[in-house]
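Model it.
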Amino acid sequence: MADFLQVSTATATQEQAVDLARSAVGERLAAGAQIVGPVVSAFWHDGEFGTGEEWRLLLKTTRARYKELEVHLLEHHPWGNPEIAAVVIETGSPGCLAWIDASTQLAEPA
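Modeled.
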């Protein structure tokens, strides 16, 4: 079942997260997305420690579509060097995994 991934990133605003979710899901790079927030993050950035509010974006995709999703997120993300991390979905309900697979397939030309 290592063919399915949950990809995460974060944005400064809810609107930015919604925009990324709409574009990625709209292009079938992800089956769906959840936006959680605001969350408080603590981090090192450019050698300095910081904290701040962020909106967490979780996208469900397949390993086959991951690279395209990563490129899309990098091109459309408001930050120059955003966190983009993927974790394997080890197992899941058959219906959910079938939904991810079907929803990330490219539409056949008419």
